[in-house]
Amino acid sequence: MNHLRQPIVSPGAWKGTDIDWTQHGLHVLDAYELQEIDGALKHLLSLGDLDFPEITRKTFPLQKVGELMASLPDRLRNGCGFLMLRGLPRDRYSDDDMARIYFGLGAYIGRTMTQSYLGDTIGHVVDVSDLEPKSRGYRKGGGQLMHTDSCDIIGLMCLRTAISGGASRITSALTVHNWMLEHKPELLDVLIDGLYLKRTDEDGRRATRTYSEHRVPFFHENEGEITCYLPTGYARLAEKSGERPFTEIESEALYQVRKAAASPEHFLDMGFKEGDIQFLNNRMMVHGRTDYEDHKELPLRRHLLRMWLRVDAWPKMPTEQIFHTDEDMSLWAQGRRRLMELPSIHDRDLLDPAVEKSMVD
Questions:
Q1: What domain range is 334 assigned to?
Q2: pLDDT tens digit sequence for 236-247
Q3: In the chain, what percentage of residues exceed pLDDT 90?
Q4: Does 204 reside within a domain?
Q5: Which CATH number is 291's domain given?
Q6: What is the distance between the alpha carbons of residues 178 and 223, in angstroms, rounded to a whole number?
Q7: To the nearest whole number, what is the mean pLDDT of the chain?
Q8: Looking at the domain assignment, is residue 257 inside a domain?
């Protein structure tokens, strides 16, 4: 049993300087597993041009790999909180088929969630700020500050790496709690009470609200289980807006928790290879990325595919920590179009917005 305001002892409360992720969180697919995935893709394609919601355990049949994926929620909840799946032969599959494989694997883990006002069930983590000026942070270039997303498990598949840089940086949020307890206990109290959050304007306009109705706790305890939710970007948006003024101690708490999450003593960097898939327990991890040099041409840019997954077997996320509600996601989902998550369609619509507009009209 772990409790807030006491040191958390758990396999997930690690420091980056003390852990070798290739020993604790790497699974390299063997020849049989690769053959099984290839067979599942061929079966899926034989059924016609199915949309992503139609990619299920039945239409993407797996046995050994399916068992591995189905075991992931327990492994991420009770272990170190992360896993890198490596070995998919990237040169064998098109971008679109990689997305299909990715979604098929996810069907064995949990239920996909809508990620933004775009209605996307697969998010494209790629710098499109020159083509989509109102992009959220995951669709902009450069480094990204440490944060958590609004789901149980986040998955990231690497389609293409950058010219240089762009490593995934992860930190245990449980370790962040312990650091705050030891060094800034009065600020930990502030984070347990919570901070106001703000969505981006586009997400807010298409949802129930832009600001959280109440302060959202960064750390929460229920029956000895600690749930961490560190939406530092949303808290910073609220602070900067002036609509939800932060007190001096609230601003300091936000600064210190971001600093602790980004501490070289705490984080570890996981370098992506093309075809890698990273899974993170979003209830006990924070993640970001290092700065990177990218290509100018859209088809060559660093490009990851993101899934938000909900695990029904886990205890429900504490109500106090839910910022994106089911109602919000239902409203966002109204903007989704058939097969819009396919990389080929994603890129086409960005390069020729008139095509997307005509489909909507």
A1: 21-360
A2: 999 999 999 999
A3: 90
A4: yes
A5: 3.60.130.10
A6: 19
A7: 94
A8: yes
302 compared with 351, residue with greater pLDDT: 302
- Whether 16 is in a domain gets the answer no
Q: Is residue 85 part of a domain?
A: yes
Looking at the structure of the chain, the number of domains it has is: 1
Dihedral of alpha carbons 30, 32, 35, 41, sign = negative
